[in-house]
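Worked example (supplementary).
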Amino acid sequence: MADYRDDFIIAIRYALLKKGAKQKFSLFFLILLSLSIITLDKFSFPFMNGVRGVLNDFVYRVSVVSSQPEVFRKFIFKKTSQHYNVTKENKFLKKEIEYLKKQKFNNTFLLSENQILKKTLDLSEVNNFEQNFSIFAKVMLDQRSPFLKSILINKGTRDKVEKGMTVFNKEYLLGSVIETNYLSSRVLLLTDLNSKIPVIIEKTNVHAILEGTGNKKKLYLNYLPENYEMKSDQIIFTSGKDGFLKAGIPVAKTYLNKKNKILVKLLGDPGQALIVNVTNGQIK
Amino acid sequence: MRFLNIIKEKIFRSLPIIFLYFFSFYHFQLAEVGKINFFSFNFQMILIYFYILKFPEELGFGNIFLAGIINDTVLGTPLGSTSLSYLTLSFFTTYIRNVTLRPAMTAEWFTFIPALFFSNFVYLIIINNFSNVKFYYIELLQNTFFTFLFFPIFYYIFSQYQKLIFKD
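After joint prediction of all chains, the assembly is encoded as:
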């Protein structure tokens, strides 16, 4: 029994401390080094932020280069499928233009009616949305991490991008900035588990919290009223209750899936985002 | 000619390290090819387990540590967590190598289960205690399962590669 225990300890010690011809460091030393880095990173010592910033900028740039073959493959695939879809889309768009022309006249009428009604109710059109910062950024990387659904953009503190800024893609909310470096930033997408925003459902007075699940076609609405049943094709807007996001930004949409279940999907497609707009959309 | 051969051998010898760094910088997923978000697996873990077990002289612990740091930077996880996870895997693998008398592929495949378990366990503990990041447990479980499942395929590929390169 004692021999067996000795053998076990010897094997463990050998594995931890042995340095071979090509092994310049022992496992024990590297494990200690990893633990020190984790601790330093956890307590965010001032010098660690600088080190992390430089490391991030360098690694992100190299990461962009190493992802180019995959970017090229995606580009070819996208262009090919676009080519086949263009005729189909053209027919559909022609029909839609006809429909929109009719709608335009209708909307002009509704707009003027709305203004008259607002004047009657004495509701002035105060735009409480302050957006004194707006910058376009290119998506450098879209990493499919099992832990963070995030994208990396090519603007950082050099371009005055700050933590917490909101990011849009084609007028749809995409997420918010969670990490800034000198030349790059990380954007946490709405699809991420950690993303939670207050929303309101179209044509109702129902407020909820929109949470990410990792899947853009399967978002989760939390804190809905009891016995509330969702309907399909309803747009979900930001409610502005967090005091941070402007109210009325379209975020998601309810839809009926193949199994006749009503689910919530994101309006914007983070996977297709190439150029995003970073703003400080805060309420005054 | 001799010089060219030396360069060629250096490159072929460094290929596992190149792959380790490449996949740390860029997370290619099989899922993206087939639009099936299911078959993702951790290539780095298979590579580390195989090379530490069979050809430890080809893959240094220092490289594994650095690849882990890069992986953390790219994914945005706490710095050092992946390194520690990879080093735990390396430690477990070195232990298995030391206590194995007669190596067999099946035995090595099954010892990959506890090795994966311990390295992922360390990773989970660090993510849970050192960051506010929430986990996609199912994805991690699927990823681990397919990492284990695809091991024999890569075992064969790596073995054949090593035989081909170092036949003389």
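Two points are worth noting when inspecting this output. The CA atoms of residues 68 and 83 of chain B lie 4 Å apart. The mean pLDDT of chain B is 84.
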